[in-house]
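FIELD: query
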Amino acid sequence: MYQNRSRITTTIWATLLLAAGFAWWHILPDSIRKAIEPTALAATFTVNTADDHNDGVCNAADCTLREAINAANAGDTISFNIPGSGVHTINATNGFSITKAVTIDGTSQTGFAGVPLIELNGGSAGAGVNGLSVNAPNAFIKGLIINRFSGYGINFDSIGNSSVQGCYIGTNATGTAASANGAGGIRINASGITVGGTTSGAGNVISGNKGNGIDVFVGNATIQGNFIGINSAGTIKVSNASGVVIRGAGNNIIGGTTIGARNLISGNAEAGVRILDAGATNNFVQGNFIGTDATGTVKYACGAIGCDNLIGNSNGIEVLTGAQSTTIGGTATGARNVITGNLDSGVSVSGGGATSIAGNFIGLDADGISTHGNHVNGVRISAGSVTVGGTEPGSRNVISGNGVILPDRPRPEQFPLGSGILISGGSGSQVLGNFIGTNADGTAAVAVYGDEGQTGVSIIGSASNIIGGTTAAARNIISGNDSGVLISGANATNNVVQGNFIGTDVNGVGAVGNDSNGVEISGGANNNIVGGTLMGAGNTIAFNGCTDRYC
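FIELD: result
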């Protein structure tokens, strides 16, 4: 009797608990239910045809990519086993929408050996169509060729932790020529997206797009290990508009401090990297090759009427209005960018604030010796409060070999020689601890392609800038240039040049003269200071090719 009552009581309690649990479960918000509900074991769906139809079934007899995407649940994998060898082209009839967490793994196709074999061709997909529209977190895309869509190749438009690796986006199947996506390569409108990676094969080739290679509208993106604007061999330009554009988004990383994180950003018709608009704060551009080939070298030859194999961007890096606290390079080992071969300036800062340019080679190849330089300026500043270099170990830039003469690209009339650093607007910038005009050791001048050369530092119509300082760490070596320092223009006032070696080697003893003036002040510039009364403020100015006061 007691046992029967116990069983009945237990049954009643179990029923009540189940009922309560059912009621409790259904009053929870969807977002919480989805976060805690159990998920089925992940499955693999195998694409076995290059057709693009959708009959609602994905099985061993027939499964298209579109059917596999529709069949996949959260956490599933889509693999490929399309019969036959070589590249398999899926002629898309529309874009592909991803609404659940999924891995699409083109590297699973039989015969894959590092070059993608699955091509998504959007030439017949219609107007305004993106190749892959990702509207779910935890979507991982690997080993695809995505081209000819009228929109973006890939559009990330949800919460993050998604990635794209090992893809060719905007090129043909071999990565050698453009097969453009119309709006651009990749659009990032979600936080926490990774493009590429640091391991072998993780990088993408993002080139040949009519728009930009990568557009970043939401922050916390990581862009590493990619070729952007150049072919898959890293030797010939396959231009995007700009390579990477960060628009109003913060805390993004382009590159990194390891070799595997390095992006090659070259060949783009506009900027290699462009950062702009309010909200674009705390962005880092580190460890990249910008304007070079894959070896960090610029190789071209010029005749009387033109040059072959120019692979530079227009400007290497642009920082525009609204951007704040941008770091280009850095003091950490591996943070150095190699920025050379670009057809205007290596770095152009025309807006924003608190930009730091440190630890880079600007105008030199990766070896720190060879140069074909940036065509006009190494660094151009027309905004305020920019720091070039610094006093911390590792912050020195080597800015040499710029101002290259190219027969088919005349220079702007107002800057006929080009400059290592041109400050032509704003105020309050600092140039500290750099080698300007020399090799990376500060021991010899760098030969400039075309037998011309840069003015070391030009201040044109800008006020209250500081070149050097009273400590050894702040000292610039400004040697081996056409002219060392030029200050010109009626608005060029209250600038300070102190503590530098101008015309000597790094030890202040050996001759590495500038061809013309050590320091020239002209064009109505006034109230500027060269040297000073404080200990360490005096400049060493020697071995230059003029006979004036500051030679």
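FIELD: remark
Helices lie at 2-27, 30-36, 65-71.
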